[in-house]
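Prompt: I keep going back and forth on a fold encoding question. Comparing notes only helps if you start from a blank page. Show me how you would write down a chain together with its backbone fold. Please set it down just below, with no commentary around it:
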Amino acid sequence: MKLLVIAGPPSSGKTSLVKQIVKKMKHEMKIAFFKIDVVKAFEDVELNKEFGILARKFISGDLCPDHASVMVLGDAVEWAETNGAELFIVESAGLCLRCSPYLNQGLGIIVLSSIAGIHAPEKMGCMVTLADIAVVTKIDLVSQAEREVLVQKIKETHPDLILMETNALQGTSLHRLYEIIRKSGDIDAETLVLKGNPPLGTCTICVGKKEIGWKHHFGVIQKLDGQTAEYLYRGE
């Protein structure tokens, strides 16, 4: 079974890209789709209704969606394999820019909107720097100059990234992506691990403490007058 993990900020065009991939490849291989979100998600219903593919979702609720993804992804892979899927597409919630949702196997795709601003790639950390492919969407809504600046920013953030530009609603210029998917290797579910390291530690914010100010918290903290990368550990 081949694996695609598709990440990107909300409204960047992740689901539109998924639909283009499914539309193109559903006659070549059996596809399963899994969506992780926080409160509501309708993509599974839409894809099942439009294309008749296997589709399901997981709502993380009060749990961080990236944390939830790590917890349930093993079961999701098993579900897809049990149902005979040959291509498994996972769409992340796209909310946490620090946690990388990608795995050590399969393809990691970051979806970036042209209208998100030229500094967007630099703000997304692991979501960009650990991806294999970047798909820039909504290219019909900005000028050629803006597109070129955004592409350059992406290349500066991750020089080895395979980069494509598209209007995902029409699916233009995605032929190279389909070919890369076809040539990608099958995964081994027993050896799947996160591609990147999770955040440094668990803190009192992670477990629901609501007070503001570092003096109210334990774990990994940071002060306003500290350097950008200077983190402190405050024990209980």
About this structure: The mean pLDDT is 88.
